[in-house]
Specification:
With 369 residues, the protein is an alpha/beta fold. It has helices spanning 14-30, 43-50, 60-69, 87-103, 122-131, 141-149, 172-181, 202-218, 232-240, 255-263, 273-281, 293-302, 314-326, 332-360, and strands at residues 2-6, 35-40, 54-56, 72-78, 107-112, 135-138, 157-159, 190-194, 221-224, 247-248, 267-270, 286-290, 305-308. The strands form 2 sheets. Strands 3-2-1-4-5-6-7 form a 7-stranded parallel β-sheet, sandwiched between helices. A 6-stranded parallel β-sheet has the order 10-9-8-11-12-13, sandwiched between helices. The two termini are 16 Å apart.
Length: 369
């Protein structure tokens, strides 16, 4: 079976790359005879990193040809169908589904979080493509509720969890080496802070206060973790605003390497969803800074705490983080149970995919050209 995989791949976003890495990992383990082909912003990088064929996601000719060769299109995972980022992004991913319909290629939405949607006619447009999917597998309850509001029948929609929860980490020595490269002792008390670029200064100011508070009150050193290259300037601005001079991971890493690094930390404070997902997978105490419903939804699912990013202050953040740090042992059992539950839920993506693949398998070459 030939699978065409569409998502936000090749943009050096660790969260989306973790989704892809986990999906390819599971496909290799379960179905080594299947051929995944990835639509990527940087096809050569994707091929070199994952050892699979990749094609340019913005070449209509490549898309047309590969869609014709594919037995099944996988759209996902992540937050692909939403227009809070941009209307163009939503139209791109719906355009991929439209191309699949025109080529007669069945498709499945896998591990996606839907919405938010804004503007007249948007929900009706999204509903059109969801109705035509072989299956819709969503990563959180809020997305499932949204689809129910669109009127899709229950059998067509399945709740699962983010595919990145299935990713296996790199070795412990990888994490130790990364910490040493950042100038930190691997066995010291550490808090990872996942930063991201933001329109206002308040989050950076609050994080700077947090870093000083943890270092001066608790002796906990902060390590700033950019999950995308565009986050790095924000990390350095935080450093410049502190007395404690937190460390910065300023080199590119693979998703499995970052996962190992997160697993070596005592606590995580994250402005990105996949910082929370990595922490949950490793049962690390985590505090989310919620800028989007998907962050709050996952924090609830994982038993994590979340603060709204709007009007965040250093004092509020420091109090919440100190409480989490001082009570981290008390929550160990809850985190272990959540990690197991989330991994089981993430497995649902693969079970549904296998059911769809069995249903849509065609004779070799039936839709070539």
């Amino acid at each position: 079976m030939r699978l065409l995989i569409s998502g936000y791949y090749g943009f050096d976003n660790l969260g989306d790359e973790a989704i892809l890495a986990a999906l390819l990992q599971e496909l290799r383990a379960r179905h080594p005879d299947w051929t995944p082909v990835v639509l990527s912003h940087k096809p050569s990088d994707t091929e070199a990193t994952y050892g699979v064929p990749a094609v340019a996601r913005d070449s209509l000719l490549c898309l047309w040809e590969e869609m014709g060769r594919a037995d099944l299109l996988i759209s996902g995972g992540g937050g692909l169908l939403q227009n809070v980022t941009s209307q163009l992004s939503l139209l791109y991913y719906l355009g991929i589904l439209e191309l699949a319909l025109r080529r007669g290629t069945p498709y499945v939405l896998l591990g996606q979080g839907l919405g938010p949607f804004f503007g007249p006619g948007v929900l009706r447009l999204v509903r059109r493509y969801l109705q035509r999917a072989q299956a819709v597998v969503l990563r959180d309850a809020d997305s499932v509720r949204l689809v129910r509001e669109l009127g899709l029948p229950p059998p067509a929609v399945t709740e699962a969890a983010d595919l990145a929860l299935l990713l296996r980490p790199a070795g412990r020595e990888v994490a130790q080496n990364l910490l040493r490269l950042a100038g930190l002792e691997p066995d010291g008390p550490l808090c990872g802070v996942v930063v991201r670029a933001w329109a206002s200064k308040e989050p950076e100011e609050a994080i700077a206060v947090l870093c000083d508070h943890l270092q001066e009150r608790l002796g906990v050193r902060c390590l700033l973790l950019p999950f995308q290259p565009s986050d790095l300037p924000s990390a350095w601005r935080v450093v410049a605003a502190t007395r404690s001079q937190p460390a910065v991971l300023d080199q590119p890493v693979l998703p499995a390497e970052m996962l190992s690094l997160v697993g070596s930390l005592g606590m995580v404070v994250s402005m990105r969803l996949h910082g929370l997902i990595f922490a949950a997978a490793h049962e690390v105490p985590a505090l989310g800074l919620s800028y989007d419903p998907k962050v709050t939804a996952f924090a609830l699912q994982a038993g994590q705490k979340a603060l709204p990013l709007a009007h965040l202050t250093g004092q509020v953040l420091s109090v919440a983080a100190q409480d989490l740090w001082e009570n981290r042992e008390a929550g160990a059992k809850q985190r272990a149970e959540a990690a197991s539950r989330l991994r089981n839920a993430a497995e649902v993506n693969l079970r549904v995919l296998e059911e769809v693949a069995e249903k849509v398998t065609r004779k070799p070459g039936e839709r070539q050209g």
